[in-house]
Design brief:
two-stranded antiparallel ribbon, 4 helices, alpha+beta, elongated
């Protein structure tokens, strides 16, 4: 049992045994009352790394929809609150960037919780996450989380993430090419007008050659810069695209390795059972 001090008073937390997915249900009593669901999960920026812990108010997995009742209450209020937080376990717990907290909201109307109950809920959530993250069997729980989440993560990356980034990269590359073409056309037109002006000066040609908004000279100056910016956006999309593909390969590779390990273990057990039966006979 854990005990957490809040501005409403002490909160006692009791942890159940991990379920088949590696999640642990913590039950809060005292100043905060209700269930908190804690599970190992993937890193928020690198989905093939399972180096994070998520806590969700309520008794359902945090990656799913908002959980149904029961939800935690704070103090004497009957308001049910929903929130989720994530802790990156490879970072020290005291650094701010190790944590990602979502706003606690009133599950009845979606309004943001007031500071005092939000702080009490955050303290309880932190305690649950830190207790889970300090478990000696965390590597096993992370492996269970990988098994549970891999199909959904791969599906999203393949169906949505990779095609979307590919389209965005192509869009920025085409945009950069258009800007360069227009810049080249504006430059060529300016030089043509300049030659005409040298051969036969006129006020009209002087206006064409002047540096003014949307003029040929202006376009020749800013369009290459726009092309460079589009190129940088395209390179960024390509970097993300490469990361997404790496994550898919890593997730699929880990799933294959786990299946192979399970099959090998099954064969070993089958052999041991056959040998034991032969000895008994």
């Amino acid at each position: 049992m854990l005990e957490v001090t809040t501005s409403y008073g002490p909160v006692r937390l009791t942890a159940a045994e991990p379920n088949k997915s590696g999640a642990v249900l913590y039950t809060a009593t005292g100043a905060v009352r209700g269930p908190l669901h804690v599970t190992a999960t993937h890193h928020p920026a690198e989905w093939h790394r399972f180096s994070a812990v998520r806590v969700t108010l309520g008794a359902l997995h945090g990656m799913d929809a908002m959980p149904a009742e029961p939800l935690p209450r704070v103090g004497r209020s009957a308001r049910p609150y929903w929130a989720t937080a994530l802790r990156k376990t490879e970072e020290p717990a005291h650094v701010p960037w190790a944590w990602q907290f979502g706003e606690a909201v009133d599950a009845r109307n979606g309004e943001t919780a007031r500071p005092r109950p939000a702080q009490a809920l955050e303290a309880v959530m932190r305690a649950c996450v830190e207790d889970y993250a300090s478990r000696p069997d965390l590597p096993r729980l992370s492996a269970l989380a990988r098994r549970r989440e891999t199909p959904g993560l791969v599906r999203w990356l393949v169906v949505h993430g990779i095609p979307s980034r590919e389209q965005d990269a192509q869009k920025y590359e085409q945009e950069a090419e258009r800007h360069r073409q227009h810049a080249a056309q504006a430059t060529a037109a300016w030089w043509t007008a300049a030659r005409w002006f040298v051969a036969a000066p006129s006020p009209v040609l002087a206006l064409v050659l002047a540096q003014a908004p949307r003029s040929l000279a202006h376009q020749a100056a800013y369009l290459p810069e726009f092309a460079d910016m589009a190129d940088e956006q395209a390179r960024q999309e390509r970097r993300i695209l490469r990361q997404f593909r790496t994550e898919v390969e890593e997730l699929r590779g880990a799933a294959r390795a786990e299946r192979l390990a399970r099959r090998c273990l099954s064969h070993v057990r089958a052999g041991e059972e056959a040998r034991s039966q032969g000895v008994a006979a």
